[in-house]
Task: structure prediction
Amino acid sequence: MSAENAASRELTYSQAIQEALALAMERDDRVFLMGEDIGVYGGAFQVTGDLVHRFGEDRVMDTPISELGGAGVAVGAALLGQRPVFEFQFSDFAALAMEQIVNQAAKIRYMLGGKASVPLVMRFPSGSGTGAAAQHSQSLEAWLAHVPGLKVVQPSTPHDAKGMLLAAIEDPDPVMFFEHKLLYKMKGPVPEGYYTEPLHEARVRRVGDQVTIAANSIMVHKALDAAEQLAAEGISAEVIDLRSLRPMDYRTVIDSVCKTTRLVCVYEGTKQFGIGTEVAAAIAESDAFDRLDAPIVRLGGADCPLPYNPDLERAAVPQVPDIVAAVRRTVQGGR
Amino acid sequence: MATELILPRVDMDMAEGKIAYWYVKDGDQVTKGQVLFEIETDKATMEVDAPAAGIVAGLCGEIGEVMPVGQVVGWILAPGEGLPSAAEPPVEAAVAEGPLPAPASVSSPEPAPAPAAPPVVAADPVAAGAPLLRATPLARSLAREHGIELRSLIGSGPQGRIVGADVPVGAGGNRTSPLHLHWWQRGSGAPVVLLHGFGADHAGWRPLVSLLPPDMPLIGIDLPNHGKSGRLPVESLQDLADAVLRRLDQEGVDRFHLLGHSLGGGTALAAAALARDRVRSLTVLAPAGLGADIDGAFIDGLVSAQTESALRAVLLRLFHDPAVLSGSFVATAFQQLQAPGRQAALAALAARLMPAGRQAGSAGVAWPTLRVPIKVVWGRADRILPIAHAADLPGRVAVHLLHDVGHLPQVEAAGLVAELLQQQWRAAEAA
Result:
């Protein structure tokens, strides 16, 4: 995991996160990690790995099985000037810590007139596809994106995972950092050393001119696969990686839709009241409205608790053929 | 304000009813609550009262006629007030919104409502005020910018929705020459302009072109809504001809010969009528525009085929000899038709030119004024356009009726068509 590799190298998404955590701890004594089984066990998804041996138990702290208690300690530590990074085993357990996240971390700067801040990072392994059933597979980022006072980001590549995590740890306010479980093993180029990526910018991952696909997290990769297939049919799709949900980079999506005239939003969370719902509404309100040449389409998760059965689980979230079909229909005029 | 009289729902499971008796007639003054008519359902007969005071007008439900619940059967007007325009829905709107004409039972993934069903004027007063015009925000803003009346356009989108490409300004494209023109070969003398049939494009002439001498100048043009050409609202063969002539103007082609097939044949005839001084000779293969009959099932099948095998079955109708229909012909045609919006654009065109399996317009040729060599070539086994349309042509027109040839003489009798075209061209160029 260290700098003994060559300059141009590939890391997995989870290696990139671990490297960011190590770099941050090396650079800043205030940074420490908290979470259930993140020490000797190395974390539910082995993201913290052997960091406890490098940095000791005071900086890689196993917490009791109480998300609310752990989150409370993290918020308090941040208030007193530390830089805690709190790992949830599954993002689903955010439900247990909502009081600390929503009513405390998000509000304190504002309720104390800016005299205090909560420089806290919470990491959420999220998403379906692991056969972990309804309580361990959700994509709840929209919950937290609804709360003013939080920042919510969802890097989709190892490169962004490292750079955005370092930026999140530097940030003076609470940052909710969502990691899709199926991305952990994905490899990609990751620069050596310390660097940050902005927490408020989307990225255009593929340039196209007939339709914009706005996607987050793992859906970016499915959208890119779909765009490749569509290109073979002569359909040119632009793929936008939202990266940050709050603040959202509306301008990048608006500019893209002004060019392409069509929008398909792809996200794994429940379709209703979801990330794509926000993007669609923002576009309808924007100066892109007069450029729309087809109804906006939202392709989100099914309106049901995620099934345990793997076939049903797959069917409950957008897959590449679903994206291909939705984009094709949109380019052909919509419903 | 005018008040609608609608056929009301008087019991839970009532979908339609009929008027059993009218107590009033157009022009009668009525008071609110006065009995206007009786309706009869499966179960009962009920009286319907006037919802407002005023003058009864526009009554349209015949006694005994079965109508859907919600149907407007008349109006109550204030003194001096006229009937709302929706009382007589414009035909144009019905076309723009309505299903494609479905003359035969060709399978379609989204079954269109049966054309026979009477249009239900919604009970919603907003909808009743004007027929719904479907257009995307982009189409609306383009039309606004360029001062184009949306109602003059044909929507190629679902349910006739007007999309940006339907507004004849293009999105940043060439606004004045929307038709794609291709010089097959250049040479000396006036060029022959090749005009393809419905659903085809200029590339379809390739086999014929290969049989023509290399010094014969040949131009292919993609008709509006075909091939690489843009979308244009087209109401008639004359509109097609007009677009072709404008494109030739832009190309600086003053004098030319015309070779047209089917829809392109009708276009060629109309172009010859519109610009007879510019035409050196006229050759048409199984042309449209000479009569009303057409194989509507073919047209419908072409615009609705969703699989290659479905399209194959449709295309077989083009040929006398089914063996001529190659797999690559089907695959190429299928690929063309699957281009985004293509089938919808063709359906919109068909709805104007060939509604309900009939040709709507004529090529409008005044034969005595056309003093150039004219040939009409028709396959005797043509199942798309009947050879009978060639029967009444005047004596100056040479009519060639080909045995064992279907709707594509340029394919099934390519050698002969090439020979006839050369005769035309050489005779006219020598003159």
Remarks:
- The first strand of chain B starts at residue 3 and ends at 6.
- The interface with chain A takes residues 136-141, 156-158, 161, 163-165, 171, 338-341, 344 of chain B (CB under 8 Å).
